[in-house]
């Protein structure tokens, strides 16, 4: 919750959702005091919100640890989200238009631990099948999609995902956290990630992260083409098209329109 907001002027539903988001971001259950500090709310208000959400099953209290975690109702909502596949449904038109614009195969992936899980592949006519098919998982640090999403994560979360050299897969860079951080800094600087001949020899990919309203990467859109010079400003046009598609998907996810 923004620090400048007066907690008394914020609707209770907004504060309750802020508590749920804080618990969802945390690596484990949290004390009420930690929630109060993070959300800049009085502790009494946090206890009141927690009590109401415990009654509804969205929060569970761990009395021995004096901590609070997500409840079964929160899990049920998450499971319903997975069943309804809103991300895939909202993405298909965007991917189809992207393929029409660039003439190359496009795909949508999400972070799953240290891996990228590919949810959709929209194959361009006449293009060969790719390793990034639906349901395939690849090391995030090796793919353009993974690098795009990792670049949007806080440094602490990247460090938690890659605590040591044994967390890295493959022989080439990045093979250490400092190498990965330098790579991700470059991705943040230009706003997109690239990968050439690392996933499949002879192919390269450009990817852009899709962010939620909190700036968290919920997915990445990527286009894969044959390696080699794009020619005549082709690479710049490709990057611009992927960025425009990611922006369009963000608008759809945020409820900002159907276009």
From TrEMBL:
Domain of life: Bacteria
SUPFAM superfamilies documented for this protein: GAF domain-like, Winged helix' DNA-binding domain
Pfam families: HTH_IclR, IclR_C
Domain spans labelled IclR-ED: 73-255
InterPro entries membership: ArsR-like_HTH, GAF-like_dom_sf, HTH_MetabolicPath_Reg, Tscrpt_reg_IclR_C, Tscrpt_reg_IclR_N, WH-like_DNA-bd_sf, WH_DNA-bd_sf
UniProt keyword annotations, A-Z: DNA-binding, Transcription, Transcription regulation
Start and end residues of each HTH iclR-type domain: 10-72
PANTHER family per the UniProt record, alphabetical: HELIX-TURN-HELIX TRANSCRIPTIONAL REGULATOR, ICLR FAMILY, HTH-TYPE TRANSCRIPTIONAL REGULATOR RV1719
Name of the protein: IclR family transcriptional regulator
Organism: Kineosporia corallincola
């Amino acid at each position: 919750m923004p620090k400048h907001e007066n907690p008394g002027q914020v609707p209770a539903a907004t504060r309750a959702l802020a508590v749920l988001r804080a618990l969802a971001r945390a690596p484990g259950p949290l004390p009420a005091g930690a929630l109060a500090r993070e959300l800049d709310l009085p502790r009494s208000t946090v206890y009141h919100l927690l009590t109401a959400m415990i009654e509804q099953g969205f929060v569970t209290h761990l009395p021995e640890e004096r901590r609070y975690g997500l409840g079964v109702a929160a899990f049920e909502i998450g499971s319903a989200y997975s069943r309804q596949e809103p991300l895939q449904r909202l993405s298909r038109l965007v991917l189809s238009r992207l393929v029409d614009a660039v003439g190359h195969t496009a795909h949508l992936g999400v972070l799953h631990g240290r891996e990228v899980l590919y949810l959709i592949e929209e194959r361009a006519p006449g293009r060969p099948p790719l390793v990034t098919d639906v349901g395939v998982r690849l090391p995030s640090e090796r793919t353009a999609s993974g690098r795009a999403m990792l670049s949007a994560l806080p440094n602490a979360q990247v460090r938690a995902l890659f605590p040591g050299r044994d967390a890295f897969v493959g022989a080439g860079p990045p093979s250490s956290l400092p190498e990965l951080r330098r790579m991700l800094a470059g991705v943040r600087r230009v706003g997109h990630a690239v990968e050439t001949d690392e996933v499949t020899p002879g192919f390269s990919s450009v990817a852009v992260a899709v962010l939620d309203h909190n700036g968290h990467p919920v997915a990445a859109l990527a286009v894969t083409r044959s390696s080699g010079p794009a020619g005549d400003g082709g690479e710049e046009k490709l990057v611009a098209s992927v960025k425009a598609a990611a922006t369009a998907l963000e608008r759809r996810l945020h409820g900002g329109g159907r276009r």
